[in-house]
Sequence to fold (206 residues):
Amino acid sequence: MTITAIEPRRKGLSALYIDGEFAMKLDTQTLLENRFDVGRDIDDEELHEIISLSNERRAKEKALWLISYRDHSKKELADKIRRTCDEDSAQKAVDRLEELGLVNDEGFARRYAEQLIFSKHMSKRGASYELSRKGIDKELAQEILEDIDVDENEEIKAVLEKKYRNLDDEKTRRRAVAALQRLGYGWDSIRRAMDDYSDYTEEDSI
Fold:
């Protein structure tokens, strides 16, 4: 097989032509570093190797771009990279970033759990579910959540104060209950917080 043309494409890729026909698009820098030039004869092993190297570079670049945007868990990061790269390249990229300390499930889980609980006013049960969706180990999630000191009664009242202040209106009350259940709170906790909130607002109006 002979490389007959290499044509630049968008996003750092180049079209590789073999024996006069388009073969595939590969990472341009990878082609340059491995001296894949027009006129070079290659065999199947060399072609498969350059494909692998190209995929790995693209996976690493995608991973770095994603973590520059926000924190990710290992699973979440790998899942996103797999949308454009093969599974093996995606996993290698994530493992390498973990070795460099750029991806850390424990640190991510702690920050994410605190955000869910204190910014979104989610219950610990709701936060546990969200952590599992991000691929966080169940025992690690439980350990992290146990370390967080939170008054869930106050978090529920914060939700009510922000969006559902008029609990005397039955429609508003039902919407509040549904919203709090989606945040992971049980009925007993919701009822107790609603009663406390109603008593507080009644006293405040006197």
